[in-house]
């Protein structure tokens, strides 16, 4: 009986802390779009690590930490890939990872949330607000998806001749989809 | 219909012909230069201009082919041997086919490489195919191969026109030129 209540207690305790949920990398994605001369060029990152604790019932206990491997950028062609990681752009050699760490999460409405946190690209931290939605999927998984926009010049992405005129747009929409494994009980 | 065939190319056919030459020379030069350039804003601009020219060439080729159904081309000189007639028809229709196929391959190649073609930076042309690296490389090869073939056929076409003018002394070349003098063939 003592053992039984101990198990119950530990289960209850586990439930209180939003437990980290595994992110299914194969079914998750982080993508962006850069517009040059009216042409939107889409890219994505093939490798990233994500630690997400998400509890729809108590969103304020949720948190997220992501680290994106800059070298894993896929901008469609070898030329575009190698340009994207050059020093003027994402500077793979100087800053191999871009990170996001949430500071707070709040509910906006049914299935709608907002995370605030620090996005660091090329070593430059900037506060950002990320609206996202959460949808329960079959099998207890949860799909978090959202979109926000950054100004690339805030992070010193693309400089010098690339900023002349309005050849390459400053606003870069970023989209993400994170598929979370079922919460551990 | 028993409309008599004209002896000269009309102003519209001539404009289409010479404008096409001007545009493909420009597109070829841009393609040659930008192919070896390091990525830079200038290179992206050249890529865009090259694509805009290609779309224009394609559009003009479609209009020329349609126009040719209405305003028939003047007949070949009666003295031409059969093999020359066949060669002339093959190279003319080959040129039209290339003027359509080269821009098409460039457009598909752009889509495969993840760069949509946006005509004049304003009018997006839908991507028929999605992003595909291997297909992109293959289409690049196709685009270059077709361009090389075009270069040869254009050379042949120009050499044939000069041969008609200087050797055969017929009006095959001059009927594609604006009338300089008044003694051109009567309408």
Automatic annotation (TrEMBL), chain A:
It holds the Pfam family YceI. Residues 20-181 form the Lipid/polyisoprenoid-binding YceI-like domain. It comes from the Bacteria. Residues 1-18 form the signal peptide. The keyword Signal applies. Keywords: Signal. The keyword Signal applies. PANTHER family: PROTEIN YCEI. This is Polyisoprenoid-binding protein.
């Amino acid at each position: 009986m003592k053992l039984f209540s101990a198990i119950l207690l530990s289960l209850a305790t586990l439930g209180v802390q939003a437990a980290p949920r595994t992110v299914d990398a194969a079914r998750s994605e982080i993508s962006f779009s850069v517009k040059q001369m009216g042409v939107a060029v889409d890219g994505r990152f093939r490798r990233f690590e994500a630690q997400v604790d998400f509890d729809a019932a108590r969103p304020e206990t949720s948190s997220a930490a992501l680290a994106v491997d800059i070298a894993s950028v896929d901008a469609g062609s070898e030329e575009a890939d190698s340009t994207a990681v050059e020093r003027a752009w994402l500077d793979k050699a100087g800053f191999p990872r871009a990170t996001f760490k949430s500071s707070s999460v709040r509910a906006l409405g049914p299935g709608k949330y907002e995370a605030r946190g620090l996005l660091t690209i090329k070593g430059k931290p900037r506060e950002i607000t990320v609206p996202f939605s959460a949808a329960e999927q079959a099998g207890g998984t949860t799909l978090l998806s959202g979109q926000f926009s950054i100004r690339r010049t805030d992070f010193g992405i693309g400089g010098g001749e690339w900023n002349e005129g309005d050849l390459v747009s400053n606003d870069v929409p970023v989209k993400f989809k994170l598929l979370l494994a079922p919460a551990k009980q | 219909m028993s409309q008599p065939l004209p002896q000269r190319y009309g102003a519209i056919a001539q404009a289409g012909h010479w404008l096409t030459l001007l545009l493909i020379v420009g597109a070829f030069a841009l393609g040659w230069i930008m192919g070896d350039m390091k990525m830079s804003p200038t290179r992206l601009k050249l890529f865009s201009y090259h694509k805009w020219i290609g779309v224009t060439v394609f559009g003009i080729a479609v209009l020329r082919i349609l126009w040719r159904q209405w305003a028939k081309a003047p007949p070949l000189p009666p003295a031409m041997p059969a093999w020359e007639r066949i060669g002339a028809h093959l190279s003319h229709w080959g040129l039209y086919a290339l003027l359509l196929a080269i821009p098409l391959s460039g457009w598909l190649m752009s889509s495969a490489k993840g760069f949509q073609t946006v005509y004049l930076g304003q009018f997006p042309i839908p991507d028929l195919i999605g992003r595909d690296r291997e297909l992109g490389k293959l289409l690049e090869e196709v685009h270059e191969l077709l361009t090389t073939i075009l270069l040869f056929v254009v050379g042949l076409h120009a050499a044939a026109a000069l041969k008609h003018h200087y050797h055969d002394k017929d009006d095959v070349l001059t009927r594609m030129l604006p009338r300089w003098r008044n003694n051109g063939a009567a309408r």
